Amino acid sequence: MSLEKMNIGAMIKYHRQLRNMTQSELCKGICSVTHLSKFENYNKEANWETIMLLLDRLGISLDSIQQTSEKISTELSDLLDAVLSYDKERATECYNRVKELQECITFSNYISLYHLYVYRYHLLMNHLEEAEKEQEIIRQIVNSMPEQEKELYEFINGAYYIIKGDYKLSLDTLLKVEANDLLPSSWQAELYYFIAFNYANLKDSSSSVAYGHKALEAFSRSFNYLRILHTQFLLGIAYTDLGIYENATEQYNYIFKNMNLINADELKSAMYNNYALLLEKMGEMDQAARYYLLSMEHAQTETEYLTSLCSYTELLISLGRKEQALENISKILQETKASSMRKQQLIFKYYQYLLKNRKDRAMDFLENDLLPYLEKTYFIEDYNKFALSLARYYSDSNLDKALYYYKKVAERGE
Questions:
Q1: pLDDT of 96
Q2: Can you tell me the distance from the alpha carbon of 261 to that of 284, in angstroms, rounded to the nearest whole number?
Q3: CA–CA separation, 203 vs 216, rounded Å?
Q4: pLDDT tens column, 76-114
């Protein structure tokens, strides 16, 4: 009977204190107080005869400890499976069961895995404050953890940096994890997916496709259908950015066929929005407008709704539907005022000036407000797009400024 995952000394101390017993009362006739103290506090070795006598005096059976160890192992495995499957409802049920065992886990060698899995769970649920508490706990014990668990901690930190929007730091962290090759095999698909996700956000679409296919293969081996859809969605975005529209369309077609089969409602708004972007790039404007409206209809959060409304409004602007665009812009500016969508707030303020025929004011705002923000926050693609507009504006009136902005765009690889 293996009890190697349980810290018997710490558990004996816990049950002794629970019964208000002194060390002398517990060990009388069994061992010395000094020996018991070392066993309780430092998990010093004790022979099985001594352990059995101590447990018997406390009224605890060895079988009950074994059962507790097995239960902890099972519940942690179930939590991990739910988290990696992206099954939020089941993950929450598993998390609640694991929390009920927290006190027992404290007396086991599962303690670091417990905090790692709970850290990853809170990131899945977007519980950022709780995730940061777990991150701090792990930081304090990381030096005592096995190498594989240290690597798992670095991997989960990489996922945390994504939520914080630091895609470069996340990518650097995850590429180191990949190079070290210590991550448990069950996490490999997630590793490839997050690397692909970071490359997509950093506008390296070719690398995003390469790692996206690695993730797709790994998720397929484990029949992780929801994550397969997430990866196909990511590939659709990357192929769109690369201008390989046939491949992008193929990915979206897979998603359309399978999305309703696995109840992927939380994916619908973003998927419709990005499919509309593909249709727009392909010149199918009426179809693009329809999917932007579908995206708004299926939005589950205010941010999703506003993201689609912004995309739809930019389409209206390109189609010359000025009045409808201005009506939407008023709503966008009002709704993003108190949100984290600072970029959209600035971009549509610029569009509002343009549509109200205040071009000089628009360009002044672009130069002094919008472009500095985009440069500071590393929105390179957006910066290049609007810097080109400013360069063209200055081409007839201020050649030095026009050349300055053309040069800025060239430096960023436009």
A1: 96
A2: 28
A3: 20
A4: 999 999 999 999 999 999 999 999 888 778 777 788 899
* Triad 317, 322, 324: Cα angle to 5°: 95
Torsion of CA 265, 267, 269, 271, to 10 degrees: -140
How far apart CA 151 and CA 187 sit, in angstroms, is 11
**Residue given tokens 């290049």 in the structure block:** 384
The tokens of 200 are what? 């997509």
Separation CA 46–CA 59 (nearest Å)? 18
Q: What is the mean pLDDT of residues 276-294?
A: 95
Please name the helix (run of DSSP H) or strand (run of DSSP E) that holds residue 301, with its range, or none.
none
Give CA torsion, residues 68, 74, 80, 82, to 10 deg: -120
Residue 190 corresponds to which tokens in the numbers above?
């997630």
Instruction: Please answer whether residues 5 and 110 qualify as being in contact, where contact means their C-beta atoms are separated by less than 8 angstroms.
Output: yes
Distances (CA, A) of 400 to 35, 71, 393: 83, 72, 12
> Which domains are assigned to the chain?
8-60 (1.10.260.40), 146-247 (1.25.40.10), 264-353 (1.25.40.10), 358-414 (no CATH)
Contact 94, 76 (CB under 8 A): no
Residue type, 335: E
344-382 per-position pLDDT tens digit: 999 999 999 999 999 999 999 999 999 999 988 878 889
Instruction: List the end-to-end C-alpha distance of the chain, in Å, as a whole number.
Output: 65
